[in-house]
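Posting here for the record, re: S-adenosylmethionine.
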Amino acid sequence: MTKPIASAQRTNEILKKFDMYAKKSFGQNFIIEGGIVEKIARNCNCDDVAVIEIGPGIGALTEQLAKRAKKVVCYEIDERLKDVLDYSLAEYDNVEVIFEDFLNINLLEKVNELNNHYQRVVICANLPYYITTPILFKIFESKADVDNITVMMQKEVADRFLAKVDTKDYNALSIIASVYYNCKSVMKVSRTIFNPRPNIDSTVIQFYKQENAIEIKDEQGLFLLIKGCFKQRRKTIYNNYREFLQDKDNATHDLEKANIALSARAETCTLDDFIKLKGVKDERESLCEN
Ligand code: SAM
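Prediction output follows.
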């Protein structure tokens, strides 16, 4: 029986056969532990549906997804991997690899197309660490109908997404992501299961749709306000917000009307607090215009 692609032996054999090396600039760290890719594929709930994978690399996770899903669509930026993937995934006829930068694709269109043919669409990936946040926000902001997003990322970034209000890791990222999805930790992953070995550990987390997602009018405006309030963590929300507005009287007015103490810090505020603050700001600005 052939070993899984996610094994030290197969990975070395494939890399050697194609005279390949992992490219640091593309965030390439290949998983060489079969149990890990199997567990990620199992947890992403892709049985008999369609999966989109970002960055298949030499196919370690793709192989496990292909065994379960009806269809696997992969986006890979590195064209050197064309021959490699043709070879490593030769026995799976349900895999399509598109050589394109994921950040440039029309995700909504692709997800709609897949949803027309399959029961559900999920996204699964061992993300390139250098663009974890842009990739996730592209998915979130596309508003594509994706059942869940199961992704491996640097442990420290995962900690921020998973953070609860009033903890050290809670920040703008935690709040903005919570507008779209809930998230939970799937597993911790040691740096020792990669080739080449990175100098950080990882966590797999799963984002799943909010049951009662709030409809937000001016999403980008709200996100700018949240980022502004977290600009300097050691400062009070008043100091950050005043700087964001460039006006101390309006900052005092808005925070007081939104029932947020001037001495509070942004990490003690919930998404609802920020929505309220944005509402007060919008109302004040519309009164000024009239
Ligand atoms: N899935 C493989 C695994 O788990 O062994 C490889 C994961 S590796 C951490 C990240 C992969 O993402 C690499 O194959 C890399 O070339 C690819 N990648 C990096 N930037 C990308 C982008 N903008 N669009 C699509 N793929 C990208």
